[in-house]
Structures are given as structure tokens and as C-alpha cells.
């Protein structure tokens, strides 16, 4: 007889545990349980059968893996949280009794936990940590832009501002920035650090208000983890490029609102350390000092006396130096993989096929001046990341390396309409004519294009070209650059269709209607086409006009695909799905249709604009 299985002791009931049962097992509060789950990366799970996992109950609840909860039970942070709970009780009791000395001593011995071991557990290698800092950077830059708030301590905002400045300094120093995009939410940046693509969002410098319905405690827990993670990552990045971490802060520059310029990058002092001379181990044997060299000589002597000369390996003879040291002569053996190595060497054709390197010194030959209405932190970061020099007025902060009257300024980034200069002397006029006044979008579009674009479409007061996202959001997204060939074909077709319409309009109205009807029917098969040719000939229609009308009907039929078979197959597949899978499938199809509709609208709008542009050019 097999072993009896008790209900709730095996299967899903044992593999899963509810949130309330997990809190009872860990003996902590709900807030502490949430904090532990965030720090350790543990999240709720969805069992296949909620009724079985909940031991027969169908009540709505949240499930976790039992192994995850057992893993949390041995967490050192949980022990510190319990100690903090006991500390809070003792402190409140001492304050209630008026025991100020004991309260002060308790405050000095307040339990504090560290997250270093959690970072090492969650990210075994440095590349793992580097891949996961996108959300951390977004959170850091968000809190760095927040004003003073009773719900957030000022020291936390200051630390986030420091981490954000350290990241920007590293990106500017290593010239790792690749793309940027000015969106409604903020500025998206994308950098490439150690072959890892990192994308983050920086909000604009507006007054940020924290909504009341946002649980700041959850965000602060994430921020606590992210600060520790970025501290590890930044230390590694700075030390790899030979910089001191953390970079020292110049208080005078910081007080003058110098931004990232308040931090000073210092080279790490690389002292040439002398290689340690290995000590020869000496042992005393029977009152005589014996070294490792003596032992080696003895072994070689025994080997030479035991084996004959013919049995010894002649390829590695033993040679004795003048100093008495025994050396083994190294004999170079021919490699068997020389032919394979020669075939794997890169050739000129293979080198040409490699992708071209990104021009990280795009703005190196230029010097920029920021107008007072532009965002200084954004464009200082962009220009300096690509090797350019930039200056700004004192109203935007201190620490500008150049003055507005500097003759080396080549571009002025300005974002206001053109105003006539009434009081302008000759020197100011010459200076203005030497410089190129561009709108801020020119900087970002030049970075995304990888080359310096023409300044005329971005000149002051001009209507800007569309600012497109450089990121591949999803497969099949609207890409105007990819429509050039299709647009050329569509323009050619439209011109042909317009010419054909004019020919049709020149014919008699009855013949034109008959021609369209017959040509539409002739698209179906060859028999109908022959019959249509005879009917067109009997009606007195020109053969060339008839052929053009048939080609036009065929193009129209190609634009309307017949998806009857695909739709029927999709319906059959949908019948085999569960209700949950059907809902998920409908959501996916709805989002796909929405994206396709948006793309078709943009394409149609672009075709209309191009058509109007061509007509205006011909007239």
C-alpha cells in the first residue's frame, strides 16, 4: 500500500503560500514585508489553480513561493528590522518617562542595516549590475529634480543630485552618449558603457509636485536599493578609467549653481610598485640549511642516475647557469593550427564590412553659446559628451568657461523668435554674422544622425522639421526614412494614375464608365481579360487606354489584401483558447491594430504633404 498523502501537504498547496501566512511566518509587519520583497527581488506568483494553492478556498489573495519566504527568513535585514522595532519601543518608553539620558544613549546605538550583501547576491558580476541600472538612473534623476518636501528628507534629494552629477560626468568623460530624444515626459538619453546599452529619462526643470495618491514609501525603498547599486557601479567605472571616486565637490562653484561643473575630476595617483622578490624557503635538516634550489638539484641528480640518457627527453634539456640556478630550455614547437589561424585573420574586405565607429567628437571643432531661455543642464551635457565647448550667461548659473564676446563661438543655441536689432554697433553686427543661430533641436538631431546637419532648416524663427525618436520602439514602427523607396513608387503610380484619369475623362462618359467596369472585371482571370478586350474594341476604346485601366485596377486590387483564410484560421485557433488566453489575445490584437492605425495615419499624412509639395514645385 502506498503512502497516504494528506490534503494541503503536497503539490500547489505546499509550493505556494499566501501573503498573510508569509507575514505570520516571518513575524513582521506588512510594511516590513513589502520592503524585504523589494530589496530581495521577490514578487507575487500566479499558481495554475488558485483553489488548490489556497487549500480549497476561492477567496482572492496574493501568493508567493514557499521557497522564497523560507529564503527571507534567514535575511540579516529582517533581523535588523526586528531590532529597530524593539529600539523604537524602548525609545518611546524613555521619552514618555522623561529619561533623556537613556533616550540619548539609545539614539546613539540605533540599529542600522546595510544592503551590500544584497547587491552582491542579486548581481554576481559587474555586467549584470550594469544591465539593470536603467530604472535606477530614472529614479535617481526623478528624485534629484524634486523640491524640498516634508515626505522626502533633503539629504536624500542631495544624495540623488550627487549621483546624477557623477553619472553625467562619467558619460562626458568617456564620451559614451549615443542618442537623445526630446519628448513630452522629458529627455531620453542612451549611452553605451562596456558594450551595454543604457537608456534613462531625465525630467525637465519644472516644479515637480508629488501626488497625494502616490505611495512614497514604496518608491523610497526602491531608491534605497538603487543608491547602493549605483554606488558600487560608479566606483568600478571611475576606477577603471583612472579617476578618483567620489569626485571632490568645490563648494564655491556649487554655491554659484555651477551644476556638474562643481565636481572636480581627479586622476588617481598610480604609483609604480616594485615587484616583490620571492623569498627562497630555507629549512633546517639535521643541522644543515637546505634551500629549495638544493632540493631541485637533488631531484635532477637522482633522475639522471636512475634513467639512461636515451630515455631522457632531449626536447627539454637541463642547463645550469653561472649563478648555479637550474633552468629548463624552452623549445618552440610548430603549431598545428597555423593554417586555421591564418584563415581566421581579418582581411581588407572583412574590415570594410564592419560597422563604422560612432563619431564621439562630433562637436569638437565648434564652440556653443546658450541663450538664457534654453535649458543649460541638457545642452551642456549633450555638447560636452561629443567633445564640444559651451558657455552660458550668468543668469543660467556660474562656472561658464567662456564669455559671450568670445570670438571662438561658432553656434548660438537660441529658442525665441527673431527680433530686429535697432541698437547694434558694427562690432556686434560682425560678431552676429560670423555665428550661426540654431534652435535646440538641431543639436539633438545632429547627434542622432551622427553628422552635422545643415543649419538652415533649424535657423532662428524657422519652422522645425519633425523631431523623430531614434529608438526602435517596436517592430513595424513608423519610420519615415524607410519610406523613401515606397514613396517614389507611390509618386510614380500617382502620376500615372492622374494621366490615366485625364485620358479617361477625355473619352466619352459612357465609354469611360464601360471601360472601368470591364477593366475591373478583367482583373479576375485571363478569359475575362480576353472578353473585356473584345468588348472594349467593340465600344471603340483605344487599346492603350484599356491596358492602362487594367494595370490601374490590378494595383488597386493588390492594395486590398484578402485575409479570409487567415481570419478563418485565427478564429479556429481562438476557439481552442481558454478565457484568460482569449482576453490576453484580444488585448494584444487591440494594441497592434492601434499601432497600425497610427502608422497608417502618419504615412497618409506624409504622402499628402509630399503630393502638395510636388504640385507647388511644378507650378
From TrEMBL:
Biased composition (Acidic residues): 489-508
Signal peptide: none
Stretches with biased composition (Basic and acidic residues): 583-611
Region of interest (Disordered), ranges: 488-510, 538-619
Domain (BRCT): residue spans on this chain: 358-460
Entry superkingdom: Eukaryota
GO terms, biological process: maturation of 5.8S rRNA from tricistronic rRNA transcript (SSU-rRNA, 5.8S rRNA, LSU-rRNA); maturation of LSU-rRNA from tricistronic rRNA transcript (SSU-rRNA, 5.8S rRNA, LSU-rRNA)
Subcellular location: Nucleus, Nucleolus; Nucleus, Nucleoplasm
Any GO molecular function: ribonucleoprotein complex binding
Main localization, broad class: nucleus
InterPro entries for the chain: BRCT_dom, BRCT_dom_sf, PES
Record note on quaternary structure: Component of the NOP7 complex, composed of ERB1, NOP7 and YTM1. Within the NOP7 complex ERB1 appears to interact directly with NOP7 and YTM1. The NOP7 complex also associates with the 66S pre-ribosome.
Homology family: Belongs to the pescadillo family.
Name of the protein described by the UniProt record: Pescadillo homolog
Species name: Lentinula detonsa
Gene name of the encoded protein: NOP7
Amino acid at each position: 500500500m502506498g503512502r497516504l498523502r494528506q490534503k494541503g501537504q503536497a503539490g500547489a498547496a505546499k509550493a505556494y503560500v499566501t501573503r498573510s501566512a508569509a507575514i505570520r511566518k516571518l513575524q513582521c509587519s506588512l510594511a516590513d514585508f513589502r520592503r524585504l520583497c523589494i530589496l530581495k527581488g521577490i514578487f507575487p506568483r500566479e499558481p495554475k489553480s488558485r483553489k488548490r494553492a489556497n487549500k480549497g478556498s476561492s477567496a482572492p489573495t496574493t501568493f508567493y513561493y514557499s521557497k522564497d519566504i523560507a529564503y527571507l527568513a534567514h535575511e540579516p535585514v529582517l533581523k535588523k528590522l526586528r531590532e529597530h522595532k524593539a529600539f523604537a519601543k524602548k525609545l518611546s518608553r524613555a521619552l514618555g518617562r522623561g529619561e533623556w539620558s537613556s533616550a540619548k544613549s539609545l539614539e546613539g546605538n540605533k540599529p542600522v542595516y546595510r544592503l551590500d550583501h544584497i547587491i552582491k547576491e542579486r548581481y554576481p558580476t559587474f555586467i549584470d549590475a550594469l544591465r539593470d541600472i536603467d530604472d535606477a538612473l530614472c529614479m535617481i534623476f526623478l528624485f534629484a529634480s524634486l523640491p524640498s518636501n516634508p515626505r522626502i528628507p533633503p539629504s536624500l534629494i542631495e544624495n540623488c543630485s550627487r549621483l546624477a552629477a557623477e553619472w553625467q560626468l562619467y558619460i562626458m568623460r568617456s564620451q559614451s552618449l549615443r542618442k537623445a530624444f526630446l519628448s513630452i515626459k522629458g529627455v531620453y538619453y542612451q549611452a553605451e558603457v562596456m558594450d551595454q546599452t543604457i537608456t534613462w529619462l531625465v525630467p525637465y526643470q519644472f516644479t515637480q509636485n508629488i501626488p497625494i495618491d502616490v505611495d512614497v514609501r514604496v518608491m523610497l525603498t526602491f531608491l534605497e536599493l538603487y543608491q547602493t547599486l549605483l554606488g558600487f557601479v560608479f566606483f568600478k567605472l571611475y576606477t577603471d578609467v583612472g579617476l578618483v571616486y567620489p569626485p571632490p565637490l568645490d563648494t564655491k562653484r556649487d554655491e554659484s549653481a555651477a551644476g556638474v561643473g562643481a565636481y572636480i575630476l581627479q586622476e588617481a595617483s598610480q604609483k609604480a610598485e616594485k615587484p616583490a622578490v620571492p623569498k627562497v624557503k630555507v629549512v633546517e635538516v639535521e643541522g644543515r640549511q637546505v634551500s629549495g634550489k638544493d632540493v631541485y638539484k637533488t631531484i635532477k641528480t637522482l633522475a639522471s642516475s636512475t634513467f639512461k640518457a636515451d630515455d631522457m627527453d632531449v626536447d627539454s634539456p637541463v642547463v645550469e647557469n653561472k649563478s648555479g640556478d637550474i633552468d629548463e630550455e624552452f623549445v618552440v614547437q610548430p603549431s598545428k593550427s597555423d593554417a586555421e589561424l591564418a584563415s581566421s585573420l581579418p582581411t581588407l574586405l572583412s574590415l570594410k564590412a564592419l560597422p563604422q565607429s560612432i563619431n564621439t567628437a562630433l562637436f569638437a571643432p565648434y564652440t556653443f553659446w546658450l541663450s538664457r531661455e534654453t535649458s543649460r543642464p541638457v545642452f551642456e551635457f549633450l555638447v560636452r559628451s561629443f567633445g564640444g565647448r559651451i558657455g552660458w550667461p550668468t543668469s543660467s548659473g556660474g562656472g561658464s568657461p567662456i564669455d559671450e564676446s568670445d570670438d571662438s563661438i561658432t553656434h548660438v543655441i537660441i529658442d525665441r523668435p527673431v527680433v530686429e536689432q535697432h541698437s547694434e554697433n558694427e562690432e556686434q553686427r560682425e560678431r552676429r554674422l560670423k555665428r550661426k543661430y540654431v534652435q535646440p533641436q538641431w543639436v539633438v538631431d545632429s547627434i542622432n544622425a551622427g553628422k552635422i546637419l545643415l543649419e538652415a532648416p533649424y535657423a532662428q524663427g524657422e519652422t522645425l522639421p519633425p523631431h523623430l525618436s531614434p529608438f526602435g520602439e517596436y517592430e513595424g514602427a513608423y519610420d519615415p526614412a524607410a519610406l523613401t523607396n515606397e514613396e517614389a513608387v507611390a509618386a510614380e503610380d500617382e502620376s500615372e494614375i492622374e494621366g490615366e484619369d485625364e485620358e479617361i475623362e477625355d473619352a466619352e462618359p459612357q465609354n469611360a464608365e464601360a471601360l472601368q467596369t470591364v477593366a475591373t472585371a478583367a482583373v479576375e482571370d485571363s478569359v475575362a481579360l480576353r472578353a473585356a478586350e473584345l468588348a472594349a474594341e467593340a465600344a471603340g476604346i483605344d487599346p492603350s487606354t484599356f491596358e492602362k485601366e487594367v494595370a490601374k485596377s490590378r494595383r488597386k486590387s493588390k492594395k486590398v489584401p484578402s485575409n479570409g483564410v487567415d481570419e478563418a484560421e485565427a478564429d479556429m485557433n481562438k476557439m481552442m483558447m481558454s478565457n484568460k488566453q482569449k482576453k490576453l489575445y484580444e488585448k494584444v490584437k487591440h494594441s497592434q491594430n492601434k499601432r497600425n492605425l497610427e502608422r497608417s495615419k502618419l504615412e497618409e499624412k506624409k504622402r499628402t504633404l509630399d503630393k502638395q509639395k510636388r504640385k507647388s514645385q511644378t507650378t
